[in-house]
Diguanylate cyclase (Thalassotalea euphylliae), 948 residues
Amino acid sequence: MDFKKVSTFIAGVLWLITIFSGHVLANNQTESPTESVSQQSFKIAIYQQNYPYQYLNSTGQPSGIFIDFWRLWAEKQGVDISFHGYSWAEGLAAVANQQVDFHAGLLPSDTRKHQLLMSNGLYPHDSFVYIDSKVQDAITLSQIAPYKVGAVNGLVNLEILTANNNISVQLFQSRPELYDAVLNGELLAFVEQGELDNSYPRIKELGAIFPKYKRLNYFTGDYSAAVANDNVELLNYINQGLAKITLAERVDIEKKFLNMAPEGDVLNLGFAGNLPPYMGYSASGQPQGLFIDMWRLWAKHTGHQVNFVGDSLNRSFTQLVRGSLDAHIAYTSVFDENSGLQKSAKVYSLSSQVFVSNRLPNITSLEQLNGKVVGVFKAAPYVDSVTKQYPEINYRMFSELAEMIAAAERGEIDAAISEVETMQVKLVNANLQGLFYLLDQPAFPIDIFAVVAKGDTQLMRDIEQGFASIPRKDLHMLESIWLKEHANSHFSLLEPKIPLTAQQQHWVQENPVLKVGITKDWEPLEFIGENGQPLGINRDVIESVTQSAGFELEFLAYDNWAALVAGFRDNEIDLILGVSSDNSRAPDFDFTDSYWQMPWSIIYRRILGRINSLTDLNGKTLAIVKGYQLTNWVKANYPEIDVVLVNSTTEGVLAVQQGFVDGFVEGLPVASKLAKQESIVPLEVAVVPEFPSQDSRIGIHKGNHVLQSILNQGLSTIDDKKRQEIFNRWFDINIHSGWDKRLVTRIATQVGFVIFAIILFVVLWNRRLHKEVGRRKALEMQMKHMATHDELTGLANRTLIKTQMESAIALHQRQGLKLAVMFVDLDGFKAVNDKYGHDFGDVVLQQVAERLTSCVRKSDTVCRFGGDEFVVLLTSLNNKEEAAFIAEKIINLIAKPFIGNQIKATLGASIGISVFPDDSDSAADLFKMADNLMYRVKSSGKNNYSYL
C-alpha cells in the first residue's frame, strides 16, 4: 500500500478545512507575501521540558517535533539555525528583547498576543488533565474539582481550567518535580500540554497509573512560532517557509515522537482505551482486549505489522484525517460524509440489552417500563428504532457509560440499555454488580466497522479480505478468552456437530482432507485474495458445512470455469462449488441439496439505455462463460440473440467494455461487484424476469453417496440467518432492473428465499411437526444444560468449572489481576444426611447452593463439585484478603440453621483457598492446592479457612 500517496491526497484536500474546534490549519497553500531577509542564520528559543515538541534529550541535545520541523523549514529556506534552551518566562523575554530571532513554538494567549507576533499554525494541540486510574470514571472537569491538580509553572491557559471548573492548582518548577509528586501519591490529577515526557525514568509506571483514556481535554489550539512585536518582516519570512511544508511532511515528523510507526509497512491503528473486554490497557499499560487480539490475528494473516495507539475517538478521527493514523479498529455510529473518513465492511457485531434496576423486580419485557426512565446512549445506532417502538418510555440520553452507571446508582434511571459485556465489567469494577438484572430480550445489534481515511481503497480491501481469511474457529477461540458469556459470541461455531453414522464416521476418517476447486476470479462468490488465500461466499459456505463434520479443506484454484470442470473430471479435486444440476453433467456429477438460488443478471454498457427484458437484446450479442448451463437455455428460447462464449468472467466484462459484445450474463452477486469496479466505460446491471434462477449446489463425483449425505447434513445446519450473514458479508447490490425494484432487492438480499418459503409453508400446514421441532429444541437445550450443570442445585458442575478456570486464567494473565479458587466442604453433612434421610439432605444442598450464590458476584462462579463439596471461583481480585472476606461470609451463612420438612439442622464449612498467579498458573494445580488446604482445615478443627 502506498501510504505516501494517500497522505499526499489527504493533504491536498485538507488545507482549508478546520481542525480542533474551528482552528484553521494555518499551513495552507495560499500564498504569503514573498519576503527575503538579509540574515542567513537564525537563533531559535526552545523550552527545555515540553516533550514531545521541544526538549533536551538525555545527552543534552535539542530534540522533538519542533526541532525536526524547523530543521526542515531551514532546509527549504536555505538558511542555518541554532537552538537555545530557556524556561518559559526566559524564552519569552529573549524573543521580546531580540536576544533570539523567534520562539520554536507557543500556544496563544491574550497576554502573549499583546507581547509578541504569532506565526501561522505549526501543529494543532490539546492540553489535558491526566487522572489517576483509581478515580472512578471521571468524565467531566467538574468531577475532579475535589482534587488538587498539579501543573508546571508557566503553562499557558491554566486560567481556563481553574476559572470555569472551580479547580485549584498546585504549581511545580519542572516536569520531574511534578511527576515525582504524582507517583508519591500527593496528587490524583495533573496538567500536561500533550503527551507524557518519555525521558522521565519512571515513565512506564506513570503511564500505567495515568492512562491516556482517563485524560480530559481542557484546551484546544494551534502551536505557533513567535517573534518580537515589531518584527513583521521576519514573521512574513517565517510564514513563507511554513507554506512550503506539506501536511504529509508534518505528519511524518509527528509520527516519530507520538509512539506511532513511521510511514512504511507498519500500520498505526487507533483504539478506545476504556472499553473492556473489547479494547483497553493492561495493568502494565499494554493494549489488550478482544478487538486488539483480533487485529493482531488479522496482521498475522495479512503480513502487516501493526502499532496500536489508544486515544479518544475524536482525537483518533482527527489523526486519521491528518494521516497520523491509518485506521481505527472499531466504530459503530454513522458519521458525516464530509468528514474525510469511510467505514470498511463489518468486522464484528455486539448486542445491547436492557439492564433493569433491582428496585423494580419481576420486569420481563421492555413494555413493562412504560412511564419509567430508561437510559440510552445518544450515539447508539438503535436509538431511533427503540424510541419509535417504545414511545411511552421516558428516555434519558447519555454520552458515556460512566454517566449512565452513576445516574443508576443515584436512582435517577430505572433501567439502562447497554452493550452487555462492557456494562458487566464496569459494574464489577465499580462494585455495583448487584445494581441491575439483565433481560434476555429484546436485544439490539451493534455492528462494528473499521474506519479509514476516504480514498484509501487498498487498506479497505486489505481489512475486508484479511478478516475474511481468518478461520472462524480462531476468532471464536479469542472470544472464549475475553467474553464472559458464550451467548455474546459473534463468531459462534457450529455446535453441536452433525451426528454421523458409523459408515459416515469411517468415511471421514479414511478421507479427512477434501480438495475443493475454485476459480481465481469469480468475486464475490469465490476468488483468490492478494495474499493467496481463497475467499468469497462459496468458501464460507463450504467451511461451515465441513467444519461440522470434521473435514479439513485444501483449495485448488483454476483460471476459469472450463479448467475447473476439467480438473474435476480428471479427479484433481473432490468438490466444485456453486454448480447447478443439469442433464449434461449427469454422467460425472452427483449434487448436494441447493444452498441458495442465485438470480442471473446482465452486465451492459450504460450507453445502451435500459434493459428491461431479454427481448431488448434481440439482434444483439450476449456473452456467456463456457460451461454455464444457461447457454443452451438462451439459444433454445431466444434464437434471435447471438450467443458468444468466453473463457472467464474477466474476459466477458472486457468484451462488454470494449464493445465486442452488447451484454454479458453472470450471477447477480458477481455482476454487481464487477459493475462497481473502476472503468472508463460505465456499466449497469439488469435483472430480467425471463431468466430462471440457478440452484447453487456442491458438485461431487458420481456415486459418492456417503459424502453426499454428509454434505447435505452439513448444509442443513446453515439456517436462514447464517446464510444471510454469509451473503451480506460479500455482496452489495447496485442494479437497474426491468422488474419491480423491491422484488429485485428481495431476491438479491434474501438469498434462499425459495427454501424459506417452502419451510414456512410446511410450518404453517403441519403444526404437529412444528411442535415436535420445538420439543426437540427444548430437549436439546435441556441436555446441554445437564451436561454442564448439577441437576439438584442448578449450579455449574465440575466439567464447566474446569473449562471456565482455563478461560479465566488466560484472561487474568492478560489483565494482571488475581483470581481465587475456594474448595468448600460441609462439616457434619454426612451425619445430617444419615439421620434425616436423603430428601432432607437434598433440601440442605439446595439451600447451601443459594447461600453460596448470594455471597458472590454475578461474574463469579459457584460449582457443586460432587457430594457435599463445592467450588467457588472468584475473579478480578486485587489481593488474597478479598477472598478471605468471602470465605468468612460463607462460613457465617453456612452456620445458620437449615430448615425443611419440619426438620432443623446446623452445619459448618471448611474452606481451602488458592490464588492465581501467587500460588500457581495452572488450573489443575490451583484445584489441587485448594483441596489440600481444605483438608488441612478439616484436620485442624474444621469450620475455618486457610490459604498460603
